[in-house]
Every structure is written in structure tokens, then in C-alpha cells.
Amino acid sequence: MPDKPSVLFVCVHNAGRSQMAAAWLTHLAGDRVEVRSAGSTPGKEVNPAAVAAMAEVGIDISAEVPKVLTIDAVRESDVCITMGCGDTCPVFPGKRYLDWDLEDPAGQGVEAVRPIRDEIKTLVEGLIAEIAPEPSA
Q1: Residues 109-117: contacts with CB under 8 Å, at least 24 apart
Q2: Residue 100's closest CA among 80, 114, 115?
Q3: Looking at residue 2, what is its pLDDT?
Q4: What is the reported pTM?
Q5: In the prediction, which pLDDT does 137 show?
Q6: pLDDT for the residue 87
Q7: How far apart are CA 17 and CA 121, in angstroms?
């Protein structure tokens, strides 16, 4: 893994799970990790319930926009994580591929999105411990 690993979160619409995961990774790892998110069929906007759920923990994703998944995004990432949404990434040798089986927050209210948000945070914390732990003093 390079000095600054790169992670790509992928979900079909890039409007909920992948946006929350990217925000958590950016928030928790800071500049120790390069973060991307994308989807094969990007939605028109980030899920308002995901925006609200992240705002509750002090993370603003209201300015984010769903992005289309490109081969270059996969090629430039060290770790590609799909979000239990049936989306697939092009496969390149030497990349690490994970699938996090997460409930889809589409069409759900913030009450239903909170546990998904919290599960994503736990998964992201585990990922950080593996690929970009805090430097020792």
C-alpha cells in the first residue's frame, strides 16, 4: 500500500451509503487517505435523509453530488469497496476489493438511516486501522 492509500466507495446511485462512507473516511482519517465515491447510475442528488443523518454527527455532505463510476477511478484506487448494492467495479490486478453488505437508505427517513450511518462508521474505523493507522509518536 502506498504512503497515502486511496479508497473508492461504489454504490449504484452514489447518493447514500457511498457518500456517507466517503464522508466518514475523510472525517476520521483526514489527509492520510485519498477518498473517492461513485456509482454506475448516479442519482440526481445525495439522499436528503443521508445528509440529515450525517449532519447530526457534525459532518456536512449537503454540497456533495453523485458521480459516475469510471475505469480511471478504479485504476487509481488501492481499495475499492462496493456497498451491498450489487454494483461491480472493473477488476485490476493488485487492487483490494471489498463488499460491505449494508441496507439501502433510499426512500427511508432519517430514523432508518441512523443505524446504517453508524454501521458505516464502524466499518470505516476498521478500514482506517488496516490501511492508515495513526502515526506513532
Answers
A1: 109/49, 110/49, 110/52, 110/53, 110/56, 112/49, 113/16, 113/47, 113/49, 113/50, 113/52, 113/53, 114/53, 114/56, 116/16, 116/17, 116/20, 116/53, 117/20, 117/50, 117/53, 117/54, 117/57
A2: 80
A3: 54
A4: 0.94
A5: 58
A6: 65
A7: 11
Provide the pLDDT for residue 80.
94
d(CA 11, CA 81): 9
Q: Where are the beta strands (DSSP E) in 12-95?
A: 34-38, 79-82
User: Active-site residues: which are they?
Assistant: 11, 85, 89
For the chain of 137 residues, list the mean pLDDT of each consecutive stretch of 10.
85 95 97 95 96 98 96 93 78 87 94 98 97 81
> Which residue, 112, 62, 78, 103, is CA-closest to 7?
78
Q: Which amino acid is at 126?
A: G
